[in-house]
Design brief:
The protein is an alpha+beta fold. Helices cover 31% and strands 19% of the residues. A hairpin with a 2-residue loop joins strand 3 (51-53) and strand 4 (56-57). Helix 3 (95-113) runs antiparallel to helix 4.
Length: 154
């Protein structure tokens, strides 16, 4: 006797996901992003994907590859890599604060350009949320915000 074993599953067979290339919306956008003490103003113009940050290229201004990846994440998420030119002015803060501010500015301007298609995925990835963490101010009688001199009982 030969028994045929049938696999029963509650899951439906997974359909192959196809990445559909969306046409680039040929509308410019601009937004402001802030992180710590850094403020970034970014303009997105339909183009070939060049970055200009304070008159320099992205690789010159942000030599750290992690910062470059952080900045280009919104384009990678939406599949729009190489479709917009970015012109940014950044002032204040340090390197990581400026990179975070620029990412928020880019995400906000992509959201402004095509809210119907871009907002849900940008929001889910957390790119539209402003990181409100800033340095705590120094308190009177302490050395820093929370550091105090050592307590001596006698």
């Amino acid at each position: 006797m030969t028994e045929e074993v049938q696999n029963y599953s509650t899951e439906t067979p997974a359909e192959a996901e196809t990445v559909v290339e969306r046409p680039v919306v040929s509308v410019p956008g601009a937004a402001v992003g802030r992180r710590k003490q850094a403020i970034a103003r970014a303009r997105l113009i339909p183009g070939e994907g060049s970055f200009t940050v304070n008159g320099r290229t992205l690789e010159e201004y942000f030599p750290n590859k992690l910062h470059q990846q952080l900045i280009t994440d919104p384009f990678t998420l939406l599949g729009l890599t190489g479709s917009y030119d970015v012109i940014a002015r950044i002032n204040g803060g340090g390197a990581s604060g400026q990179a975070g501010a620029l990412r928020l500015a880019i995400a906000r301007s992509l959201n402004q350009i095509d809210r119907d298609n871009n907002r849900a995925s940008l929001k889910k990835a957390g790119f539209l949320t402003r990181d409100a963490r800033v340095i705590e101010s120094k308190k009177a009688g302490l050395k820093k915000a929370r550091k105090a001199s050592q307590f001596s009982k006698r």
